[in-house]
Each structure stands twice: as structure tokens, then as C-alpha cells.
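Narrative progress, year one. The postdoctoral researcher (J.K.) led the effort to move from monomer predictions toward full complexes, under supervision of the PI. The following entry was the first complex the group processed end to end, covering 408 residues in total.
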Amino acid sequence: MTTIFPIEALSDERRALGLGVAVVVGIAFGFVLERSGFGRAQKLVGQFYGYDFTVLKVMFTAIVTAMLGLVVLSSAGVVDLAAIQFNYPTYLWPMIVGGLLLGAGFVMSGYCPGTSLVATASGKLDGVSTVFGVVVGGLVYAHVEPALGAFPNSGKLGALSLSTWLGLPAPIVAVFVVAFAIAAFFAGERIERLVAGAALAESPSGAAKKWIFVGLVAVALAGVAMLALPTGTAAAP
Amino acid sequence: MERNPNRFWNPYAGGVALGLVLLVTFLLMGKGLGASGATYRVGVWAVSGLAPAHAERVPAIAGMLEDGHPLDDWLVFEVVGVLIGGVLGAITSGRFSREVLKGPSFSSGGRIGFAIAGGVIMGFAAKLSRGCTSGQALSGGAAMSVGSWAFMLSVFAGGYAVAYFLRRQWR
């Protein structure tokens, strides 16, 4: 499938339509983040103090959901997974150092760059302050980039996917990721109970959780079964 | 429906909703969601307006300006949407209010200082790692990129490493 709005390639009224779609996608993104509690610093940093693992739960469930969608649609021949992965090349060392720094900045500010926008939209002054900081930090980087030399391009591995790295078909890797995520959810909930104790008696509805987990596992297994299809691009590691 | 600012979606249901938004974005645009890239473009735009001569002397900024108006990018439009969606979510849930979120015993001024400082670190870090929690960890993670997963695990590691020293902000 070709992308419906390959934004770089458009220069006419379809581009305007693509930008309109970007706004709509953003509205959905911002609304879901807000409703999940991502406009609140205390809820976000709870991840790092053990009293609230909402960040882990929302983020890993979202990653697993989108990943399974890509894997299944790729097996059905609807999506070109490799073309999407091409947009996410690996530069190992700057990504690890950047990740460590971003994690520290996260706990310091109470937000990540995306959630600080949601906090701003909710009227939170610490959120606007974080957005201001992110703007300044990006400009600081632009100024010192020449001094960093070759480091930002170090550990260059190209568009390396987990499946190429592990030498396994994407649907098999997806099953491992789902298993890893569900194990992390149970561990997170256990730590929440240990840290918050009885205060967390009103734990989120167990029925919805159970069906979501069952659904994710079912889709993951369906993805593996689809390896038998001739249309798939996901089978190659 | 009664508004309760302390009521949030079931995190797993919220995660599925977020994952579907991300999947639709992949299908429509060929790439995932993002945030810090748009924030950076606002900074480049501000510099080009306030100090155009200076902007020409910084290669990373001058390069972006050569490609056209810094705000003419789909990510900027997506972030405009994030702000609209955030306002809608906050108003309809009763969470919209002008306040500083912090622990009860920490000063507002100190909290704002930490927010700015943390933001500066994240703005720098997101450029170094070619994306933030949205563009790299979430989107690249779903695309099963090795670098995105290394980034995401590093974000958690970096957060846990400093959390103890910053705990007074939230008490």
C-alpha cells in the first residue's frame, strides 16, 4: 500500500488535506493523553517512585497495539513494514545517552516533551515552563552540535529492526514483546500495591484489563498464524 | 455525566486507544506521532524572527530555514491538534485550571525552575536521540526499531537514576 498522505511528496491541495489530517490525528493524540492522565506531573512521575505505573501501562499497551496492527497488516500485504521502519534508523550511542538525559529531564520537569504540551493545554504553568525549556534546549543543541563532532552519528546501524537483529520473523518477535509487556504490567501492579498499600484499593477495572490482555495475545497469535500467508512481507526477518 | 478530575481512563484501554491513533497515523502518513520536533521548529522560527543574522550563522538552524518556513511541517500541525485535543480533554474532565502541579510542601517558584531546567535537558536530549518519548520511544518502538527500544529503556533508566534526588518536588 502506498501511504495516503506522503507529506513530503505533496505540493498541492492534497498537501493542505494532509496537514488537516495531521491536526485531526493530533487532536485524537492529545485527547487520549489527557484522558489517560498524562497532563498531570504527579501521575507521570509516579512511574519513577513506584506509586503509579500509568506511564508504563499506557505506553506499552499503545506500542503493542500499534505494533500488532503493523505486523498483521504487513502479513496481509496491506502495509509495507520495511518502509515504515526506514523512518526509524538506529544511532545507538546518541540514542542511549539522549535517553538517559531525557529520563532525567522527565523526572526533573515532571513531563516529557509531548505530555508538557498536554499539561500546557490543561492550564498547568509547570507544563508551559517545560515547553519553554524544551524550545531552549533544542536551540542549545543546535549551537553546540558542531562541538559534538561525530558522536551524534555514532553507533550507526541503519534501519535495524528487532526482527533483523534477532534473526526472527516480525510476528514471532511481536509475541515476545507482548509477553514482555504483560509481564511488566503484572510487575508494575505488584510494585504499586507494595508502595501504595491499601490506598490503592480502587484498582482499575479488572474485567477490561483481562479482555485487553486476551485480545492482545489473540492478535499476536493470529499474526504468527498469518506467516503461512503468501502475501506477507513480515515473514522475512 | 458527572465530572471528576481524579477519574482517568483505564490505562490499558487508554493504551489501546493511543495505539490505534498511532496505527492510523502510520497508515495515513507513513510515519508515527511526534512532539519535540515541532517544539524545536517553534524555537527555530523564533530565532529566525528575533535574530535573523544570528540564525544564518548556526548551521543546524540555517539548514532548516533553507528548506522553507520552519512551521510549514506536518508535525507542527499535529502538535496544534495535540493542544486542541488536550484542551478538549481537560475541559470535559474538569481538569482545566491555571495552577502549578507540585507536592504541597514544595515552592511554586522552585517547581517552575525545575520544570524549565528539565525541559532544557529534554530539548537537548531529544535532538541528540532524533526524537522524544513520542517520536522515538512510542512510534519507533511500535515499528520495532532497535534504536527506539534502546532509547526507551534508557529513558526509564535515566528517570530511575535521578528520581530519589528529586523526590522533594512531589511531597
